[in-house]
Amino acid sequence: MLARTVFVGFRTANSFQWTKRLLNVTSQAFQSFSKDDAKGEKVHFPGATQSYFTDKMQFIQSIDPISTYRVMDKEGKILDPAQEPRVSEDFAIKIYKDMITLNIMDLILYEAQRQGRISFYMTNYGEEAYIGSAAALDNDDVIFGQYREAGVLLYRGFGLDEFMNQCYSNEQDNGKGRQMPVHYGSKELNFQTISSPLATQIPQAAGAAYALKMSGKKNCVMCYFGEGAASEGDFHAALNIAATMKCPVIFFCRNNGFAISTPALEQYKGDGIASRGIGYGVDTIRVDGNDVWAVFNATRTARQLATDENRPVLIEAMTYRIGHHSTSDDSSAYRSKTEVENWKRLDNPIIRLRKWLENKNWWNEEKENDFRSETRKEILKSFSRAEKLRKPSLTELFNDVYDQPTSNLIEQKKELKRLIEKYPENYKLIKFKNEGNDL
Amino acid sequence: MNGNLLRKVFGNVGVGRVVGLSSSTLGKGNTRVNGVRSSLAFAGGVAGLKSLAGLQRRQYSASAGETMTVRDALNLALEEELTADERVFLLGEEVGQYNGAYKISKGLLDKFGPKRVIDTPITEAGFAGLAVGAALSGLRPICEFMTFNFAMQAIDQIINSAAKTHYMTGGTVTCPIVFRGPNGYAASVAAQHSQDYAAWYGAIPGLKVISPWDSEDARGLLKAAIRDPNPVIFLENELQYGVSFPVSAEALSKDFQLPIGKAKIIREGKDVTLVSHSRPLNLCVEAAEKLQAEDGISAEIINLRSIRPLDVETIIASVKKTNHLVSVESGFPQFGVGSEICALIMESEAFDYLDAPVERITGADVPTPYAFNLEGLAFPTTDTVVKVARRTLYRKKK
Q1: CATH placement of domain B67-252
Q2: Domains in chain A and their CATH numbers?
Q3: How many CB atoms lie within 10 A of CB B366?
Q4: How far apart are CA A105 and CA A90, in angstroms?
Q5: Is the CB of B202 inside 8 Å of chain A's CB atoms?
Q6: pLDDT per position as a tens digit, B324-373
Q7: ipTM of predicted assembly, 2 dp
Q8: Which residues between 1 and 60 in chain B have a beta carbon less than 8 angstroms from any beta carbon of chain A?
């Protein structure tokens, strides 16, 4: 009966193979009949083998909301000492210093954009605790970011000059001036270059994880995205395929409350993003994303699940985007300044970690002031250095479309050279590395 | 569920099915723009059914040498490249246990195991995205789409990620990946299963686009595609899978490859150049024989093989010899492969050698109909090619 229902109309050269598969499925299904227990009769359909039959008709409207894991409260006090990570002073201070550096860099580059010195920028204000996730990874773990993860690069050792060169798309920019600002990338630091279309990095992360699994390395992939991106089909495709193909990947959702102007509560109707992970059979946790140690602990354990057992994991980190979406956005149009100020003041991830550090006597006002002024100086120095550099060579316009230039690219390049020679006054060649001489 | 079922039914009925298209009479709506005359192929009648059905089963075996179907050529190329390089793996819907909807991956799961021949969930964005991520991380995936119609669900991964990553990472990250599967018109599967995407992918910098016709093309170009460090779109044709072609001893060598970006003259001639790719080349071959026999017209046929890069040099050289050019394809007319060829010829020195406007033969500018008789009207036939070739040479039908 089952055979006729499922496979009617399928007449192929391989019908024998289908029959064989069918028999396997059927025998498995019927085995489950014998496993009936106190809960009653178990479902024998191949699509839901853990279910039981019931005579109660019930539509499920909700499950209990998923709790939010937290290690320290807003004052930096540890809730359960057993959960406090055993980290060294240096380790904790590095995380804190990177959070501060990111904060100052954001301030300077945001202002630079307002002054028209760079074209675009995105700040990380309010979400700096995600650096705790970077601190829980191995440097050989591969990162796929969305765009608001500069702190991960900073933690891995991406230099201030590299940030500035990218934002200025100058001749020392790794990306050769082909990307908008904040689309960082670093092969050396295993940080895949940021790609603008939302959520495409999520299935790619599963693929990179599959590659790691194939290589036998005990590493995983870390994939960041926002709760808005989780509405894209790619998110769903990625979780399903990572689960079915057992990919060692951590999906890290920065649920910061806003997708540009769309508030989270208009973005979805379910229990956040975490509830979806369970639907896909993915180990899932929701954490206080402003608590750097909750983020750190959850990521460390997620990493173990991924690398030891090839299990994908979903972490939903709850936070609040203090800054505008980007420099192309003015969030005062859709949320009150008071709301933003309250978040900044009452639940600030940087202040929370600072209080924790001060409780341990690892940090104080003097250190804070010294570090802030020193860092500001360093960033400004790097900033003006980057601003003075020329743009990449004009040949870079045509390179890297393919590994080797095709004939039409060579032709285009020749045409540009001809035009420049004919109308030199229309091309400000002095602004480009090599001044057009290498065309 | 319905989508799933539809795909499966579609996949199964497609295998080795023989359906001919109808013969043609040419539509009257010819327009002349900038020296290019375009002709859409509105065919009529069903008299030609038999001859095309015959073509389906036909073996293109000129000599007594070995022959091979396009399907076997693809299968063997996959097997050899999976053997040669551990980084190569195949993924897609039904490619493993089921041996592929069109049996292109027959036997590969048994030989290479489920880590390298992967049955995926039905999620083009998911498995194409996974393949791109694996390619960015050093593997060399071959991503099979059950047909390129379904690749639309993953088009962003192909265009915005695979094609652009090398450029946008400053040349530091390559994306060595092959997206392959049947493309172009099939038989009796309606508009959403039956259209040619060559022009879509052909427009994108960063992609290489291949459209093989015979078994040597399929074998040599698929091997080259898998070894290429760039993302490659490999456009097969469902109706060609079962067609046999001769293969040379050289082509059977494990190291055999064909250069991507080079066209092949598959028949030399002096009066008119027919340029085409994929399945419509069958029409050109038949038309050339007919033109020779009935009119004494000697047609040269160019098999493009590669849509991007496009080997315009070979077309130019041929036009300089024949002074007449007809492009033949099954794609839609607007912004099609034929349109691009017309433009390139006008921009080249070959324009001055033309004795008549370039003619485009394309599919009709409508979504492919399902009904057998209407579908037949939507695509060019051998008679369309014969008629247009005569017209471009100012010959009357005898």
Answers
A1: 3.40.50.970
A2: 1-58 (no CATH), 81-388 (3.40.50.970), 394-436 (no CATH)
A3: 13
A4: 22
A5: no
A6: 999 999 999 999 999 999 999 999 999 999 999 999 999 999 999 999 99
A7: 0.88
A8: 8-9, 12, 15
